[in-house]
Specification:
Layout lengths: L1 E6 L3 E15 L2 E20 L2 E12 L3 E7 L16 H5 L13 E9 L10 H13 L22 E12 L2 E11 L8 E2 L3 E14 L5 E13 L4 E8 L2 E7 L5 E13 L4 E10 L13 E9 L2
Antiparallel strand pairs: 1-2, 1-16, 2-3, 3-4, 3-5, 5-6, 6-7, 7-8, 8-10, 9-12, 10-11, 11-14, 12-13, 14-15, 15-16
Length: 306
């Protein structure tokens, strides 16, 4: 289970993510996640009384996802069983040199589905009246059904395909890892909103600060991650403006690249239970004012291995 707090400026997100990792075979594991969200956001809109903040509060289940990961190579040397010791004669035959300390690489291929389990059509009465005012008196394009902005909904309303690859390898006491996940968005949801395809990536290095005889570890990990929105979101709903009903079309601020850097500390409380604490910040000032980014994010994860 993970507890995540995200400060995104106009939106604050508190999430409890229920996760399950099941090793079906030595070469196949299935990972599932179900987020429970509490979203508190605001939007400054013009209305008959002048500009004011319209606030949105939503709580409930977000979009669940399930992925299967297939091991394409042997486990890296640093993850072998601790209770298996090499014979003394083999240890003496190890060749010293530059390549010593480099473990075998590990590659994984993943495929899965993100389900439309979260609410995507939340509406606000205050937003409705503000939208009608803008459409009637200013001629500006504005959704006129009072729908809460897409980034402040609990879910996307689409069933998406997930494809991923992951890599891990040890280097002289360090362990490097990288992962890439492609998310192909499904069709538009029930209120006419269609999300663009996305690519998520993560590159990092971990270092073991302490390793006990029973394989329990204390390690720190640092890395950078990113989100690349390949194409902008499209709003197929109709606006009622001075020019008559019009489709909104491409949604502003829903494409581009957003990068982050972070650090985490993990400790194995027992041979099955681990605690992970992490902190992330945006990489570059251009991320801070986007709906796809955040000012800062912290997480607390309890992981139990079955």
């Amino acid at each position: 289970m993970s507890f995540i707090h995200t400060d995104a400026g106009d939106t604050t997100i508190n999430a409890a993510v229920l996760g399950l990792r099941c090793r079906v075979f030595d070469w196949l594991q299935v990972v599932g996640n179900l987020p429970l969200l509490d979203l508190r956001g605001k939007e400054r809109l013009a209305c008959e009384e002048g500009e004011r903040n319209v606030r949105y509060n939503s709580s409930g289940v977000g979009d669940a996802n399930v992925m299967g990961w297939l091991a394409l190579s042997h486990l890296l040397a640093g993850e072998e069983e601790c209770d298996v010791e090499a014979p003394e004669d083999e240890e003496q035959e190890e060749v010293e040199g530059f390549l010593d300390g480099i473990g075998a690489p590990s590659f994984l291929f993943g495929a899965g589905v993100k389900f439309a389990t979260g609410e995507c059509a939340e509406r606000s009465r205050d937003k409705y009246y503000a939208d009608r005012y803008r459409a009637r008196y200013t001629g500006e394009r504005s959704i006129s059904d009072g729908a809460v902005p897409a980034h402040q909904q609990l879910g996307t309303g689409s069933t998406d395909l997930l494809l991923g690859v992951a890599y891990q390898q040890s280097f002289w006491g360090f362990v490097g890892d990288a992962s890439f996940t492609f998310q192909h968005a499904g069709d538009e949801n029930t209120i006419g909103y269609e999300r663009g395809d996305r690519v998520f990536w993560n590159v990092g290095v971990k270092y073991t600060l302490h390793r006990a005889e029973d394989c329990r570890e204390l390690y720190v990990r640092g890395g950078i991650s990113g989100l690349r929105i390949i194409e902008p979101d499209v709003d197929h709903s109709e606006d009622t403006t001075l020019l008559g009903p019009q489709e909104v079309g491409d949604v502003a601020d829903t494409e581009g690249t957003y990068n982050f850097y972070g650090v985490s500390l993990r400790y194995d409380i027992t041979d099955r239970l681990s605690l992970d604490v992490g902190f992330q910040l945006p990489l570059g000032t251009n991320n801070r004012d986007s709906d796809n980014s955040f000012k800062w994010q912290c997480s607390l994860t309890l992981l139990y291995n079955f």
